[in-house]
Amino acid sequence: MGMGTSTFVIRWINFLTMLLAIAVIIFGVWMSTHHDNCRRSLTLPVLGLGAFIFLISIIGFLGALKDNTILLWIYLIMLCLILVGILVFTVLAFIITNNGSGHTVTGLRFKEYQLKDYSSWFLKQLNNTNNWKRLKSCLVKSEDCNNLSKKYKTLKQYKSAKLTPIEAGCCRPPSECGYPAVNASYYDLSFHPISSNKDCKLYKNSRAIKCYNCDSCKAGVAQYMKTEWRVVAIFNLILFAVLSIIYFVGCCARRNAARRSSKI
Fold first, then answer.
1. Is this structure's pTM higher than 0.85?
2. Strand 111-112 versus strand 181-183 pairing type
3. Strand runs (DSSP E) across 123-257, as ranges?
4. Are 190 and 216 in contact (CB under 8 A)?
5. What is the pLDDT of residues 78-93, one digit of tens each?
6. 74: left (phi over 0), alpha (psi -120 to 50) or beta
7. Are 108 and 258 in contact (CB under 8 A)?
8. 107: left (phi > 0), else alpha (psi -120 to 50), else beta?
9. Helical H segments across 41-151, by residue range
């Protein structure tokens, strides 16, 4: 790559990522003003991510702008650490999400999920009392379960619905319990459950209880997290490829800057 081309490319790439970092920081500040504690809890990670992107971008930009080999070295080292971190996280994400799948139930268009099917990491995180208490409060505040009766006006619509893993696990008792559905948000609990599954006794029609304490709800969350993690892992593979190219261009810029400084 030409002596001026690599420097020009690195300069503009980092200028654009600086703008991206500023946008991320602004988004983090906006989240901090939100009344929902579930979203506010993400404020620090988002601000931290924005600050880190801005820091590495300004180092790369100044290094390319001034042909400063020291700054470019620091930029490349930080970029290398990011590449290693992305690679490790992606491999772990695929390993963790390798287990777990839904079970088909006759007469239902959606699947039901069992916590035991998922990796030990998911089990450890979801069975942690503090973790689940925080997640459960977010599920209750989301009103997803209570809105089912608004989405599905009739029992026929509800029975033919394709519920999400969280709706299937947290908003209703497992099918094996045998409770008849009165509508999308209410079950007739006067029937004696035909299953020994402890979730059958944990389910209540109360808006704040539902099946939020059930293993089926934790399994639904695990399935949701698995899907999200897979998406993130695939995105990371693409990001790894892009950053690898940027790293190569950065190496060229650092080498060219060293050549220019040696001629002075």
1. no
2. unpaired
3. 181-183, 186-187
4. no
5. 989 999 998 998 999 8
6. alpha
7. no
8. left
9. 43-66, 69-96, 120-126, 129-142, 148-151
